[in-house]
Design goal:
Number of helices: 11
CATH class of the largest domain: Alpha Beta
Structural class: alpha/beta
Shape: globular
Number of strands: 13
CATH architecture of the largest domain: 3-Layer(aba) Sandwich
Distance between the termini: 103 Å
Radius of gyration: 30 Å
Strand order of the largest sheet: 4-3-5-13-6
Largest sheet: 5 strands, mixed
Helix content: 40-55%
CATH superfamily of the largest domain: Periplasmic binding protein-like II
Strand content: 15-25%
Length: 368
């Protein structure tokens, strides 16, 4: 049993000593608490840094196409890259990449995670660059390569607005459907509509590229309307590059599948394929930005409702490297990204953004 509490008054010096000890104890507890909190903060920061490092390694492996190529670009050993990739998969609890001695393929989960990683890493680099380059003025000559039809319809009309914002930039546009070599040909930037696979280039997604299967009413009257993607194998499809191709699609149930198509007419120019479709030569897989007006006026008919043919193709700004990106290049990329956005205006009702027309057609060197 505890002894009874003393009811005698506590001497003043003993009370002061007790108070000092209590104050010392409280200070120690606060210090210990701060140290514990600091340790927790350090552990959290280390965990986040490690996660970002794993994401960066994974993104580089995907972009490079192999562990050894990624290791060379990151100045790491292949074994270290493999360990970090394995640690990432263990942390997430899913397999991201199927690896063999000769090839590397993303799993479905890996493809989804890669898109998120690329976005997060790009935003981090963009934030860093904006702080360091925020005081730099956009100026000098900017050489940009663009797909001919897209550049003519959707980038060239925006140049007056860009010029008003950045009067010190001299802009040189090259409209061509060939895949230019940025470094060898001296381009600062290229706009590409593709599923990017070039590991030597940095890229920023400007907009999605929604695609539709379409044909003219006259073609459909003669040959019938395909009801499923499999029906396309019996139609004359207008193709770019080869007389046969594989079109990937996602069904109403979300399942991804492919169909092998072929045709008698091939051209590597998008505008020609569009004109052939309008003339009733066959079925085309076209970007909505290229056929929007024709879908609206009925000269082309969108087919296979409920099936998505988007795949991984998007509209990208690509440039030689991310580090020390000139202010003129970043200004043009930011301008295009803001002009297009995640839901570009060509996929919205026309009343939201009217078609931009030249103020004086006599000043134009070509007739559209």
């Amino acid at each position: 049993m505890w002894p009874p509490l003393s009811k005698q008054p506590v001497p003043e010096e003993e009370e002061e000593a007790t108070g000092a000890a209590l104050q010392q104890t409280l200070s120690f507890n606060r210090l210990a608490g701060n140290r514990y909190e600091s340790q927790n903060t350090f552990a959290y920061n280390a965990k986040v840094a490690d996660a970002l490092n794993q994401m960066a390694v994974f993104a580089r492996v995907v972009a490079a196409g192999s562990l050894s190529a990624a290791a060379r670009e990151l100045s790491l050993s292949p074994a270290m890259v493999s360990r970090r990739l394995a640690a990432l998969e263990a942390r997430l609890g899913v397999r991201l990449v199927n690896r063999t001695t000769r090839s590397l393929h993303l799993t479905y989960e890996g493809a989804q995670y890669y898109e998120s990683c690329a976005r997060v890493l790009a935003e981090i680099e963009q934030a860093d660059a904006e702080v360091s380059a925020g005081r730099q003025e956009a100026q000098g000559t900017l050489r940009v390569a663009l797909p001919a039809s897209f550049g003519n319809q959707y980038v060239a009309p925006l140049v007056p607005q860009f010029a008003a914002l950045h009067p010190e930039v001299q802009l040189s546009l090259s409209l061509s459907d060939r895949n230019v070599n940025l470094v060898e040909e001296g381009f600062d930037l290229a706009i590409r509509i593709a599923n990017l696979a070039d590991s030597s280039l940095a890229a920023r997604k400007l907009a999605p590229n929604r695609r539709v299967v379409c044909a003219s009413p006259s073609y459909l009257e003669r040959h019938g309307t395909p009801r499923t993607p499999g029906d396309l194998a019996r139609h004359n499809c207008l193709l770019a590059g080869e007389f046969s191709s594989t079109w990937e699609y996602k069904g109403p149930d979300g399942k991804v599948d492919t169909v092998r198509v072929s045709g008698r007419y091939v051209c590597d120019n998008w505008e020609v394929l569009r004109e052939w479709a309008l003339a009733g030569l066959g079925v085309a897989l076209k970007s909505t930005w290229d056929v929007r007006r024709h879908l609206e006026d009925g000269s082309l008919v969108s087919l296979l409702s409920g099936y998505s043919f988007h795949s991984d193709v998007a509209i990208w700004a690509v440039y030689p490297h991310r580090r020390h990106l000139p202010a003129k290049t970043r200004a043009f990329i930011d301008f295009l990204a803001a002009s297009f956005g995640p839901e570009p205006y060509w996929d919205k009702p026309r009343s939201i953004k009217p078609r931009i027309r030249a103020r004086n057609s006599r000043n134009s060197g070509s007739v559209s």
